[in-house]
Amino acid sequence: MYCHGNTSALPFFQRPLSKLVTSLNQNVVKIETSSTMTFLEKEVLIKLHKLFFNEINAFYEKCITNNNKTFGCITSGGTVANLTAMWVARNNAFPKTEDFEGIEKEGVISALKYYEYNDMAIVGSELMHYSFRKAADILGLGLNNIYSIPTDSEYKMRTDLLIKKLEELKLKRIKVIALIGIACTTEVGSIDNLEVLAEIAKKYNIFFHVDGAWGGSFIISDKYKYLLKGIEKADSITIDGHKLLYTPMGCGVILFKSPYIASKTIKKVASYIIRENSMDHGKTTLEGSRPANILYLHASLTLLGQHGLSTLLDMAIYNTKYMASLKCNYKIDKQSDPIFKDNLNKNINYYNLSNENNSKLNNSLYSKEENQIISYFTNELQFRQKKYGKGFVSKTTIKSAKYSNCKDGISVFRVVIANPLVTKENIKFVIEEQIKFGLDLEKEKSNFIN
Ligand SMILES: Cc1ncc(COP(=O)(O)O)c(C=O)c1O
Hints:
The chain has 14 helices and ten strands. It is an alpha/beta fold and 450 residues long. It folds into two domains: 14-303, Aspartate Aminotransferase, domain 2 (3-Layer(aba) Sandwich), CATH 3.40.640; 305-442, Aspartate Aminotransferase, domain 1, CATH 3.90.1150. Strands 1-7-6-5-4-2-3 form a seven-stranded mixed sheet, with helices on both faces. Helix 8 (194-203) links the parallel strand 4 (174-182) and strand 5 (207-212). The longest helix has 36 residues, at 294-329. The relative contact order is 0.14. Bound molecules: pyridoxal-5'-phosphate. Pyridoxal-5'-phosphate binds at residues 77-79, 82, 129, 131, 186, 211, 213-214, 240, 252.
C-alpha cells in the first residue's frame, strides 16, 4: 500500500544528510577519495556483523587493522548484494590448487573440467527473489541452473524436497555453489527454516547465503529476532537499509561471516586507483565509484538506534496486523491467512471477493475456475482502484500448495506497511474503497460463479 506515491517516509535527519553526502561528494572506492567515509563504512559493517554473527570484541579489534579482511560492503541495493554473494560463492566453490589457478582466472569451462563437474547450480525456494536469476545469468550459470524448491503451506522451502534435489544434483555431478535461505520472501513475508537449511548446507558442503533484503533488519528487534534463528550460521547475508532501516534509496549491504572470504575470492586491484595492501574498499566491491551512502545507515543505526528502529518495526507489524484484522471483520478473505501465523507479518496477501461469492467457493483446495475468479477480481479491482479511487494496493502472483490447481498461480494483493505515518484511518479507507469497487464489480459479474 503506498501513501502519496512514496515508498516510505524517511526520518527527518536523512534530508540534510543527503545534502552533506552530495556536498562532500566522497567516493568510497578508495581511502584517498573518502578519508572519513571509508572508516565510517568499516565501523558500520562491524556493527552489523556483530548484530548478526556476534563474535567476541577481540575478533573485531584484530580485523579492523588488517587491510585484507573485510566484513562486506555497502551496495546500491539488495540486487547487487545478492549478486556479490553469488560471485563470492561461485569463486569459493572452484578454488585455486597447485595445478589450477581457480575459476576467477581460468573461467567456468576450465573450472568444471578441472573439478570434473558437469555443471553448477544455485538452489533456493520457488519464492527466491528474481535478482538470483540476474546473478545466474551474469555469472555464467544460466537460468536453467537455478533450482527452485517448492514451498509448504506456510511458504517456507520444503526441506524434504531440498534434500532430494541435492542428492539428485550430486549424482549428476552438478556443483551447487550456493543454497539460498530467504528472510523474508518478497511476495508473502515468510521466512525459511534457516536453522535447518544451515545444517543441510553444512552437510553437503554448500555456501549458505541468506537473502534478508526485506526481513534481515528484524535482527535489531528484541521482540522479533527469534524469527531469524539460524541466520548466524550463514556464510553471507543481504540486507537493505532502504527497506526497513529507514534510509534513503541506495543502501544495500552484503555481509560475510568470514572476513577473509571476499579477499580470497573476488579481490581486484588496479595501479591507478586501488593498491594491493591499501585500505581501499574498492578491492572487494562489484561497483567501482560509490557514493558515501553509509552515512545514512550510520545515522539510522545511531540516531534512531536499536530502540527507535525496533519501535518503527513494531509499528509496521502493528499496522499490518490491524489491516489483517479488518480484512477478517469485513470477511474479505474466507480463510485465515496462513502467512500470518508465525512469520514476520510484514506482508499480508489477500484477495477480495464479496461474501456472497466467498460462500460459494468450497473451503478446501480451490478449483481451477475458482482460482481464475480470484485472479480476475484481484486484477480488475486493482485496476479500478488505481484509475477511479484514491488508494492503491500492489499485487503479485502466488504459486503454492494452497493454489495447486492453478499451475500459473493466482493474483493476490500484496501489502507492505512500513511507513510509520500510515494511520488506522488510512488503512480502513483503502479497504473500504476496495469493498465498494468489489461490490460494483460483483454486480456486473453476478453470474460469474454458477
Ligand atoms: C528478498 C529480496 N531480495 C532482494 C531484493 C532486491 O533489492 P533491491 O531492490 O534493493 O535491489 C528485494 C527487493 O524487493 C527483495 O525483496
